[in-house]
């Protein structure tokens, strides 16, 4: 379902002059990821995608280092400190932090997930609403 407020926030990011590109980094296969972002009305906002290629063996996906390295390479980011990573998986956000990504944000949607959260890393920001990206990264807007 489209989220017009999320679309507006992403548009503000793109036009702020402080973000070089918006990149989709997913464990989904490319066709599925592109279909989903099109259905939610965000397909035109992303500059590219790093996806899990299920036809390629060995499989490389988050939280594997090779997947994070590929995302940086494809997005044209030479220093991971310049990358911002938002994900709903605790394993993936911890991996991004361990691999030196600059800003790491975990999106926790469900109440039961917040109770199970074992985030002992104060460098990982926790948000409960995707629009709170603006609150934890005000320097980007």
From TrEMBL:
This is Unnamed protein product. One of its GO terms (biological process) is nucleotide catabolic process. InterPro entries: HAD-like_sf, HAD-SF_hydro_IA, HAD_sf, SSM1_domain. One of its GO terms (molecular function) is nucleotidase activity. Gene3D superfamilies: HAD superfamily/HAD-like. NCBIfam families: HAD-SF-IA-v3 (TIGR01509).
């Amino acid at each position: 379902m489209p989220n017009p407020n999320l679309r507006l926030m992403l548009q503000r990011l793109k036009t702020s002059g402080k973000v070089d590109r918006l990149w989709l980094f997913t464990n989904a296969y490319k066709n599925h990821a592109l279909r989903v972002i099109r259905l939610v009305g965000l397909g035109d906002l992303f500059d590219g995608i790093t996806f899990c290629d299920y036809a390629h063996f060995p499989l490389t996906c988050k939280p594997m280092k090779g997947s994070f390295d590929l995302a940086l390479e494809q997005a044209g980011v030479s220093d991971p400190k310049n990358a911002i990573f938002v994900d709903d998986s605790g394993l993936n956000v911890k991996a991004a932090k361990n691999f030196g990504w600059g800003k790491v944000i975990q999106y926790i949607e469900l109440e039961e997930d917040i109770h199970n959260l074992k985030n002992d890393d104060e460098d990982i920001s926790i948000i409960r609403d995707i629009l709170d990206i603006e609150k934890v990264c005000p320097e980007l807007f």
